[in-house]
Amino acid sequence: MTHILAAGDRFIRSAHLRKSIERALAGRAADIREIEFPWPDAPFGRVAEVNEASGTEEQLIEALTGVTAIATQLAPITDRVLAASPELRLIAVSRGGPTNVNLEAARTRGIAVANVPGRNGISTAEMTIGLALALLRRIPLSHNTLLAHEWRGEFYRLDEVGGEVKGSTIGLLGAGAVGGHVASVFAAMGADVLVFDPYLQPGALGSGVRKAESVEQVFAESDLVSVHARLTEETTHMVNAERLALMRHGSRLVNAARGGLVDYDAVADAVERGQLAGAAFDVYPEEPVDFSHRLFALAAAGHDIVLTPHIAGASRETANRAADGVAEEIRRFLAGEALLHPLVAAPGPAWPGAGLAQR
For a designed S-S bond to 208, which of 13, 45, 187, 345 qualifies (C-beta 3.0 to 4.6 A apart)? Predict the structure, then answer.
């Protein structure tokens, strides 16, 4: 009997993972166990040498006894956990960036690792578009005035009204699974979309989308800039004071990617001096956030600052894609087929789990 662990949390539930695995295996014999960790009700964090993990090494070691494959989003898969789980042959991670997995330790032990890239691409793209529209049309600010029982006519004054997407220039820093969808939607709405992405393939841009030659060009020409890059040493604080100073007076900024991409102190300065008419953020340098940061004071004082608690990728569809994605990787592994999205390939001409699902 093949033993599989569905290690869920309160977004991608263990029962959800189990059902997806059962569908993928189509009745083949397998013992699917469940464990569930407390994220997002309890913040994820660092566990030993891995990041963005939920639960403890001790819990996972006990649950992995005799297990061949694990499906998880946030389980802390550390070197210690792998050393204590000699029968584990596949780690299927239901996210794009598996920072909760020690990939080198898995590679050393010949354990295959697969992920689900782009699982939340549509969800994050739609949230980004929503944040941009909220800024352009001043929706949260005007909503709050009604909650305060105020009917403020100045929202219809020419110097107070918002703007439209059609005819504006929207700059995107990155055109992957999220940025590419944002680009196509804004282009369809009539915007001139300007994209900087050094990895962009020739011919990948659709109608209404232009390729920028530099990051600085995006800031200089855009009415609204949205960030869609991966966080690396090179991209940390790619949105900084120098680049914000290149933007047109009264422009706007959106970040639903990673908090470390943006210098939030520089953003607060730009809002205070009017360089930025508004900014919208779903991600932050520290999570949970530092509520003493000036951005919160500026938002409370009536500036157009829209803040949400890192929920851009949170949709039922994202959870479904994630669970189905890891289930398919487990099916392939156990059937001896090549993984769709291998991060670490197990050594040898065939996967170690080949044929296990039929036993």
Answer: 187
Out of 1.20.1540.10, 3.40.50.970, 3.10.20.80, 3.40.50.720, which CATH number does the structure's domain 121-307 have?
3.40.50.720
- Catalytic residue numbers read 258, 287, 310
Tell me the whole-structure pTM to 2 decimals. Answer: 0.89
Q: Which residue carries 């529209």 as its tokens?
A: 133
Instruction: Given CATH 3.40.50.300, say whether it is the number of domain 3-119+316-358.
Output: no
As a whole number of angstroms, the distance between CA 195 and CA 225 comes to 10
Residues of the chain with CATH 3.40.50.720: 3-119+316-358, 121-307
* Tens-digit pLDDT profile for residues 70-106: 999 999 999 999 999 999 999 999 998 899 999 999 9
pLDDT at 358: 33
- The first and second tokens of residue 70, run together, are 């694990």
Reduced 3-state DSSP string for the chain: CCEEEEEECCCCCHHHHHHHHHHHHCCCCCEEEEEECCCCCCCCEEECCEEEECCCHHHHHHHCCCCCEEEECCCCECHHHHHCCCCCCEEEECCCCCCCECHHHHHHCCCEEECCCCCCHHHHHHHHHHHHHHHHCCHHHHHHHHHCCCCCHHHHCCCCCCCCCCCCEEEEECCCHHHHHHHHHHHHCCCEEEEECCCCCCCCCCCCEEECCCHHHHHHHCCEEEECCCCCCCCCCCECHHHHCCCCCCEEEEECCCHHHECHHHHHHHHHCCCEEEEEECCCCCCCCCCCCHHHHHHHCCCEEEECCCCCCCCHHHHHHHHHHHHHHHHHHHHCCCCCCEEECCCCCCCCCCCHHHC
